[in-house]
Amino acid sequence: MWSKVLHIASWSAGIVLLFVLLGASVASSNRALLADVKVHIDFGEGNFFIDENEVKEVVSDLGYLIDSTAMINLDPSRIEHVLENNAFIHSAEVYEQLNGVLNVDVNVRQPILRIYSQNGQSVYLDSEGKFMPLSYSYTARTPVSNGYLSINLKSLIGKDVTEIADSAQHPDIETMRELYLIVSECRKDKFWKAQFNQFYVNAQHEIEMIPRVGDHIVLVGDAKYIDKKLNKLRLFYTKGLDKTGWNEYKTINLKYANQVVCSKS
């Protein structure tokens, strides 16, 4: 019986000691100062729009200073909010460690197309359909789109092309939505991603794809059935152009269902 009592007493003492140590640890962490800010940036496909120093500057500009700010006074959600308001940042996660280290994980936006307007403006369209500004320090390697686009592109920065697509506002908005869907579909396939580096908007607001290989244009019109159009083109490339040569035709028209219409002039 006494052995059982001693066993229970030792367990109770151990639990009390655990809570004492835990309380001491919490009290110590509350008094701890910010010792370091560690930044990890996921650049995706190598889009270096921001760097570690810029992220650290955001933290210090909010008043969180190394060897000065108490860890208990840090507000990770506030830091995340400010970072995610940056036009080049997709998401941010900020969390603390007991040793006084603040970790900041950042994911950079991934541009998939650079759009030029007739008035000389230029913006990026990212993988989620959001318009991005150009960077003064870095130029992304993306396909380009130009032609008959007259809208004020800079007024669209930060907006989602899939949410504002309304031809009643401006016909270019719907055209850019079509561009986004077409480029997104091309990016799913390594060959199409490598083959098309320019998307031209003609006077009828139809979209023409300019290939890297072959002296021709591919007229897709719009994004409707774009997956089927690309399948038709792949079949034509392998069964047709491989025999006649890649420079045989000037225009390959995919607008019509179940057929490919080609012209030599």
Q: How would you characterize this protein structure?
A:
The protein has 265 residues and is of the alpha/beta class. The protein contains seven helices and twelve strands. The chain folds into two domains: 32-108, membrane protein fhac (Ubiquitin-like (UB roll)); 111-263, Rossmann fold, CATH 3.40.50. The strands form two sheets. Strands 6-5-4-7-8-9-10-11-12 form a nine-stranded mixed beta sheet. A three-stranded mixed beta sheet has the order 1-3-2, covered by helices on one side. A hairpin with a 4-residue loop joins strand 5 and strand 6 (131-132). The protein is elongated and about 80 Å long. It starts with a helix and ends with a strand. The relative contact order is 0.08. Residues 16-25 have low confidence and may be disordered.
Return the structural class. alpha/beta
Count of individual helical segments: 7
Proportion of residues in β-strands: 15-25%
Distance linking N and C termini: 104 Å
Helices and strands, in order, run as HEHHEEEEEEHHHEEEHEE
